[in-house]
């Protein structure tokens, strides 16, 4: 979908899941390209489709990602705004924390794609989590346009009552409809987006199972439980995630890109396996320059017109929760994390990926 020059998707986590699928099959993609013209009718092709189909169904936007032409790369359908951000980020101190941008690629179907670093290529059976950062996931421009149309939406009313039958007002129940602005604002209040400045969009485990059932995961305790489940059996992941988060925060504060842009609908991608763990900033289709007459600190309460995104609110809460994961019931550093320094100077270099 498009909003002016802004490209966005209904559910970005589905794209992350498809990214995982493409990444894990990228090494075989070249062989597949050579064979595809002669084996489409064979049982092999039917098996391939059956193996691929569940991932594509879950992804929803199966055309949004493709295997990259070079090993260690992936293709994402071109969004001009996102490409602009990547070009700026390649020159910014945030570069170590985002996928490397390698330019445009025109595919056989004539579609343009961004060629990006495959963040999962160096991991073995990775666990992946997508956290949407900020106190809102819609641009002020989107909200303003929605307010111009006061039509009652039955589809949004039905989505609302599926989550919380008591959410609509008596009038909304009678009319069996809600306006789009009402739905947009309500949607942010049911998750930790409004309370903690981030929300979990989805998780994929090492065994291939995945979940997006986090719409109403709202409290700190619920988030803590979800993070514990995500890192279970991978004790090395927690301290590495914590250090990476602190590195990201320290770099954000100094970044020119961060100071001059409103980051909406952007995510942090958490990835770990048995050997390593890291985090990257992804999804910049709705990241736009702050108006010339506006200054934001990414840490203040959002009000219509001030363009605050709450990005640092989310980062700070993530750090606080991961610090909690390193402590025992008495608030002391757990023995398995005793070598981790939580309060010393934060390293500014990126972790090994």
From TrEMBL:
What molecular functions are annotated in GO for this chain? ATP binding; inositol hexakisphosphate kinase activity
> What Enzyme Commission number(s) appear in the record?
2.7.-.-
A GO biological process of this protein is: phosphatidylinositol phosphate biosynthetic process
Broad enzyme group:
transferase
CC annotations in GO: cytoplasm; nucleus
Full protein name:
Kinase
A Pfam family recorded for this sequence: IPK
């Amino acid at each position: 979908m498009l909003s002016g020059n802004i490209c966005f998707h209904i559910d970005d986590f589905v794209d992350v899941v498809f990214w995982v699928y493409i990444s894990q099959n990228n090494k075989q993609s070249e062989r597949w390209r050579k064979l595809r013209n002669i084996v489409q009718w064979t049982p092999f092709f039917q098996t391939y489709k059956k193996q691929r189909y569940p991932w594509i169904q879950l992804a929803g936007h199966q055309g949004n990602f493709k295997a990259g032409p070079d090993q260690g790369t992936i293709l994402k359908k071109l969004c001009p705004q996102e490409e602009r951000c990547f070009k700026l980020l390649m020159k910014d101190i945030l570069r170590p924390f985002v996928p490397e941008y390698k330019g445009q690629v025109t595919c056989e179907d004539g579609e343009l794609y961004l060629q990006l670093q495959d963040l999962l290529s160096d991991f073995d059976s990775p666990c992946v989590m997508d956290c949407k950062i900020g106190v809102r996931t819609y641009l002020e421009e989107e909200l303003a346009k929605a307010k111009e149309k006061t039509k009652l939406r039955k589809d949004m009313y039905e989505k609302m009552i599926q989550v919380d039958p008591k959410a609509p007002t008596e009038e909304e129940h009678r009319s069996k409809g809600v306006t789009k602005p009402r739905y947009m604002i309500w949607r942010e209040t049911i998750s930790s987006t409004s309370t903690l400045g981030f929300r979990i969009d989805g998780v994929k485990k090492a065994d291939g199972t995945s979940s997006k059932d986090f719409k109403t995961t709202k409290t700190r305790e619920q988030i803590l439980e979800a993070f514990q489940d995500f890192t279970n059996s991978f004790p090395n992941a927690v301290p590495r995630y914590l250090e990476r988060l602190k590195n990201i925060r320290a770099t954000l504060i100094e970044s020119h890109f961060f100071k001059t842009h409103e980051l909406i609908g952007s995510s942090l991608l958490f990835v770990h396996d048995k050997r390593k763990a890291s985090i990257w900033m992804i999804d910049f289709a709705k990241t736009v320059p702050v108006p010339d007459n506006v200054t934001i600190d990414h840490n203040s309460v959002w009000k219509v017109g001030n363009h605050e995104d709450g990005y640092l609110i989310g980062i700070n809460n993530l750090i606080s929760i991961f610090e909690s994961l390193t402590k025992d019931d008495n608030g002391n550093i757990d023995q398995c994390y005793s070598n981790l320094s939580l309060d010393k100077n934060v390293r500014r270099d990126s972790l090994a990926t």
